[in-house]
Design goal:
Elements: E1 5-10, E2 13-18, E3 23-25, E4 30-31, H1 32-50, E5 56-59, E6 69-71, E7 83-88, E8 98-103, H2 107-115, E9 118-123, E10 139-146, H3 152-168, E11 174-177, E12 183-188, H4 197-212, E13 217-218, E14 230-233, E15 243-244, E16 260-261, H5 263-270, H6 283-293
Parallel strand pairs: 13-14
Antiparallel strand pairs: 1-2, 3-4, 5-6, 5-9, 7-8, 9-15, 10-12, 10-14, 11-12, 11-16
Helix pairs in contact: 1-2, 1-6, 3-5
EC number: 6.5.1.1
Keywords: Ligase
GO molecular function, one term: DNA ligase (ATP) activity
Length: about 300
């Protein structure tokens, strides 16, 4: 084995890792070894949120300043212990009828992915059933994307309103930063009437908030409409789409993390008592928060309710 490679044992699995000193985040000197270490340490709270969900990786083999690519069809180079599922391919996958995807279930699985420089982990709002077939969605997501001249403070104001609407509809929302510019509001849901029900419901919410405050909120995707406003991206509920998982690294300056936060933190930013910059978290920040607060994105412990008809 070359000096650049070594074998490690994690959770009873032996895997080969390589180029551990390679810097993947040059601006902070964050190496592949640190990426693997973070994913191993965050595994207890990350894994429940990706359990049963086919994973899409964003891989950065030469670091965040190099070329990147999305990878769905990743089972072909996975170790034998990693769970594989064959999923019907969405129309965007260049004519493939199926994708051979992986599901991350163990700390060793996360370490294998991190060694591929799969910096980001993205999952859909649905799981597979016991036969490996896509089940109906069990999560609703509203992705808040700030346009020019807006930021996390404006996102917090919109998130607060969305949280109130979801609670009024009997749902139990949780919230996290995107690890980039915005944030996401989620709610666990009972199996909907059909796969498109969450998209219809989310679109209606986005349209209502946009109609109430058209100077602050936009629901349409056109970039020309977005300066000075927060886009409520309801389309992430499309079964073919994925969203960055809680606790995933982001390929951004500073090696930031998509981090669950409390509604009290949203309120504090909204009322001006907390600097919006306080909602930008590094790996060390996130590990410390989990040790102090546990999993603030505990959808398993939240009330799961049906979506209103629509």
């Amino acid at each position: 084995m070359s000096p650049a490679k070594q074998r490690v044992e994690i959770d009873g699995r032996t895997l080969s890792v390589s180029n551990l000193e390679k810097v993947l985040f040059p601006e902070v000197g964050f190496t592949k070894a640190q990426v693997i270490d973070y994913y191993v340490r965050i595994a207890p709270v990350l894994l429940p949120h990706v359990a049963g969900r086919p994973v899409t990786f964003t891989r950065w083999p030469d670091g965040v300043e190099g070329q990147t690519f999305f990878e769905k069809n990743s089972a072909r180079h996975a170790p034998e212990w990693v769970r594989r599922v064959t999923i019907p391919s969405p129309g965007s996958s260049r004519g493939r009828e199926t994708l051979d995807m992986v599901i991350l279930e163990s700390t060793a699985d996360l370490a294998w992915a991190a060694n591929l420089a799969a910096l980001e982990v993205h999952v859909p709002q649905w799981r597979v059933d016991d036969d490996g077939q896509p089940a109906l969605p069990d999560l609703l997501v509203l992705d808040l994307d700030p346009g020019q001249e807006t930021g996390i403070a404006e996102c917090c104001a919109v998130a607060e309103r969305l949280g109130q609407r979801l609670e009024a509809d009997g749902l139990d929302p949780v919230v996290k930063t995107s690890g980039s510019k915005g944030m996401q509001v989620y709610a666990p849901i009972e199996a909907p009437a059909d796969r498109e029900h969450p998209s219809r419901y989310a679109k209606q919410l986005a349209q209502e908030l946009s109609a109430e405050t058209p100077d602050d909120v936009v629901w349409r995707m056109e970039k020309a409409l977005r300066p000075g406003k927060v886009l409520i991206d309801w389309s992430q509920n499309n079964p073919a789409k994925t969203t960055v998982a809680p606790y995933s690294l982001r390929a951004r300056v500073g090696a930031t993390v998509s981090t669950p936060i409390g509604w009290d933190e949203v309120d504090a930013v909204r009322d001006g008592s907390l600097d919006p910059a306080a909602l930008r978290f590094t790996t060390d920040d996130v590990l410390a928060r989990v040790e102090e607060y546990g999993d603030l994105f505990d959808v398993a412990g939240a009330t799961r309710a049906p979506l209103p008809e629509g």
